[in-house]
Amino acid sequence: MANSRRPLAQARAAPVFYKQSMTEFSELGLSPTTLQAVADTGYTTATPIQAAAIPVALAGRDVLGIAQTGTGKTAAFTLPMVDRLAAGRAKARMPRALVIAPTRELADQVAASFERYAKGTKLSWALLIGGVSFGDQEKKLDRGVDVLIATPGRLLDHFERGKLLLTGVQMMVVDEADRMLDMGFIPDIERIFKLTPPRKQTLFFSATMPPEITRLTKQFLNDPTRIEASRPATTGANITQHLVRLPLSEPKAKRMALRALIGADDVKNGIIFCNRKTEVDVVAKSLKVHGLDAAAIHGDLDQSTRMKTLADFRSGTLRLLVASDVAARGLDIPDVSHVFNYDVPHHADDYVHRIGRTGRAGKSGKAYMLITPADTRSLDKVIKLIGENPTEVTLDLDWSQARDAEGSSERRGGGDAGRDRGGRGGRGRHERRPERSESRVEPHTSAEPVARSEPVEPPPVAPLETGSQERAPRARSGRGGESRARAPRQPQVVPPAPEAPPRPKDSERNTPVGRSPERGRDQDRDDRDVVGFGSDMPAFLIGTPRRDPKA
After folding, report:
1. Residue 288 burial (CB count, 10 A)
2. Collapsing DSSP states into helix, strand and coil, what is residue 86?
3. What is the largest CA-CA distance in the chain?
4. What is the predicted pLDDT for the residue at 498?
5. Does domain 239-409 have CATH number 3.40.50.720?
6. Is the pLDDT of residue 506 over 70?
7. What percent of the chain has pLDDT over 70?
8. Terminus-to-terminus CA distance in the chain, angstroms?
9. pLDDT on residue 264
């Protein structure tokens, strides 16, 4: 295609850096209607990425925008989109503009931004995300929309159902492209590019430029203007960063430290980031148990719960948001005073995006990261990326409480030590309730009969016709728990039911050659043994002895 035939020197042109400057929106060439919508939001001065990208986008050129999170990228493509689409009419199932976002929350935020800036126009829009019924979305598509805001999966679902055509797209935006890469959406993005017309305007935004993203821009962007509002993967200068080193890796110690930080600092509201969704639920529950206003948000929650939790946090109803990295990028949540990294992120880039939730729009913020002895390698990667050493904070806590909890869990057989021994709760595979099985085979030496209170227990073993009346415990050898050299143990005799025929005598049985009747009974007993019990199988599991099928 024409995009791939441009000179390689153009694709490798030196990036253009834009430093902080006081640029008014009125200087960027926006229409009066759009300027009024911007003024209604309370903004008058554009951010560097907005000041650089809006004039280029209004001119109809492709844009490759590289800027850290929280720099105003959403308005950088929403405002020129509103102006360029003001003239024209939407057609059924054929949107004129397409915005692709990696997560439902980010797509919803873009929709809210478009609605805010396009209120003085007649432009229509639709939001295609998971967790919402197809029927409501299809009704909007049938009426026709100017702007379609979607996640890749739901967009392709509608296309494959025949409810959507992308041949009329004039303007396409890919937001948080590096996040798309992390989530495995690059094949979907490539397919969407190929479904849209080659001659369209593309605005491509990313915080970092890994090789896969660079390949994508070279393939589908047409001589883009590359704009870097700041050095990729850098933290905001107005964010104060702190490290909190913990003496042990016990989860209880991390939760103690987190509560201490929240209580010691003036936390108006904060986001707490964990690496795993299960950890998100545990931390949120722990904070609520200790009287703190917290709620969890991660990808396993249904869409309505996620949206309500975010709405409560934005409005100030919710103070603490415990999140996985689904909320780390692109979400515009104003006035977040603190960010807590409960876990050191696996990827150093995620640290930049996490703490970028605070210190937005020129406001100051604080970021804390909990460090355990097991986090040394991940911490080194973060420090190497950001190029600075955060300030270390010391907590005066009684860590013995966490150590006691760790020791008690080991004594209970829990934790990793218990799992290493095999089985649940630290019990080995063949160690099921040893105290009960041992009590079942202990011989009874009293002459008096044993009184049984459990009616389901079988009657006592009948005395042998030969040999002594009492039998000593067998010597164990191997897993089966008995020695084959000794006389076989006789099975219990349970009286047959009244209607059952009498049991044939040994002489009447068709015993195979080479095996005595006693050996046959011993083999029957072996067949009844449950794996793991050997000869210590409880009596109530033995049941009625199996009869020879040829009897």
Report:
1. 15
2. coil
3. 112
4. 54
5. no
6. no
7. 66
8. 84
9. 87
Side chain identity at 453, as an amino acid letter? Answer: S
Which of these, 460, 544, 550, lies nearest to 504 by C-alpha position?
A: 550
Separation CA 119–CA 225 (nearest Å)? 29
Q: How long a stretch of residues is the chain?
A: 551
**DSSP letter at 297?**
E
Return the half-sphere exposure (C-beta side, CA atoms, 13 A cut-off) of residue 89: 3
Q: How far apart are CA 419 and CA 403, in angstroms?
A: 19
Question: Where are the domains positioned within the chain?
Answer: 2-228, 239-409, 520-551
- The partner residues of 519 in beta bridges, in order of sequence, read none
**For the purposes of burial, counting CB atoms within 10 Å of the CB of 249, is it exposed (0-12), middle (13-18) or buried (19 or more)?**
middle
> What is the per-residue pLDDT for 426?
41
3-state secondary structure (DSSP) of residue 130: coil
Q: Is-contact 254 374, C-beta < 8 A?
A: no
Q: CA–CA separation, 39 vs 53, rounded Å?
A: 19
Structure tokens at 1: 């295609």
Taking alpha carbons only, the member of 17, 30, 43, 26 closest to residue 361 is 43
Residue pair 511/427 in contact by the 8 Å Cβ criterion: no
Contacts of 291 by beta carbon, 8 Å cutoff, 6+ apart: none
Instruction: Identify whether the C-beta of residue 362 lies closer than 8 Å to the C-beta of residue 342.
Output: no
CA distance 213 to 64: 11
Domain range 2-228, its CATH number among 3.40.50.300, 3.30.70.60, 3.40.50.720, 1.10.10.10:
3.40.50.300
User: How far is the C-alpha of 504 from the C-alpha of 511, rounded, in Å?
Assistant: 12
Which DSSP state fits 276?
A: S
CA atoms within 13 A on the CB side of 83: 23
Q: Is 217 exposed, middle or buried (0-12, 13-18, 19+ CB in 10 A)?
A: buried
pLDDT in tens, 202-251: 999 998 888 999 999 999 999 999 998 765 556 777 899 999 999 988 89
The amino acid at residue 516 is S
Query: 37 is written with which tokens?
Result: 């919508």
DSSP 451: P
CA distances from 102 to 106, 225, 277, 284 (A): 7, 23, 18, 25
55 by Cβ neighbours in 10 Å (0-12 / 13-18 / 19+) ranks as middle
Torsion 314-315-318-320 (CA) sign:
positive
Look at 188 and 396; give whichever has higher pLDDT. Answer: 188
Show contacts of 107-116: CB within 8 Å, 24+ apart.
107/149, 107/150, 107/151, 108/307, 109/74, 109/330, 109/331, 109/332, 110/74, 110/78, 110/149, 110/175, 111/149, 113/74, 113/75, 113/78, 113/332, 114/78, 114/81, 114/82, 114/147, 114/149, 116/37, 116/41
Q: What is the pTM of this model?
A: 0.57
Mean pLDDT computed over 411-427: 40
